[in-house]
Specification:
single chain, alpha+beta, 5 strands
Length: about 170
């Protein structure tokens, strides 16, 4: 018999049985055999956890921690909304640089989107160092690519890295 049922609100625990800092809450989506549960996380992702990795909380506590997660979220950079072929056609001498920076920009946006939510939810200290390095590299890289495009066409916004190193790039 399962201890928890679907739609129960839970808080994720670390390996010492204490809530993660910053706190991460979830909603039980499905119950499986052998004490496994599918959790619906605040960022829209889902994961499988065993019942000893979380504990049930009341609705008020859930809303308080969920609100804190939402406050930690920040606006993420968007893909460049442009027809790259028309952009290059107007500037044939810069063709190679434009394509290279455009591809790099897409890569950086993808990395930032992949890691920013997890860093905000689990905290900077709970993310492997390799991923943090990739995230910081992507933040610096997008500043360079957007500056390149801004120098060519001033209608494209430049990006600044916020002072808070844990935060994603703000557009």
């Amino acid at each position: 018999m399962a201890k928890f049922k679907p739609d129960d609100k839970v808080i994720i625990l670390d390996y010492n049985g204490k809530p993660l800092v910053p706190q991460v809450v979830a909603r039980i989506e499905e119950v499986y055999e052998n004490g496994r549960y599918r959790l619906d996380l605040p960022d829209g992702a889902a994961c499988f956890e065993y019942e000893n990795h979380f504990q049930k909380i009341d609705e008020e506590t859930y809303k308080k921690y969920l609100h804190a997660v939402r406050e930690r979220e920040q606006e993420l950079p968007l893909d460049l909304k442009m027809d790259i072929r028309k952009f290059v056609a107007k500037r044939p001498r810069l063709r190679r640089d434009i394509y290279r920076n455009y591809e790099l920009d897409k890569k950086y946006v993808s990395i930032i989107h992949a890691y920013a939510g997890r860093i905000a939810m689990y905290g900077h200290d709970n993310i492997p160092q390799h991923f943090l390095w990739e995230f910081e590299d992507a933040k610096q890289g997008i500043v360079q690519t957007r500056a390149f495009f801004h120098d060519i066409d001033e209608s494209i916004k430049e990006v600044e890295v916020p002072e808070n190193a844990n935060a994603p790039v703000i557009m």
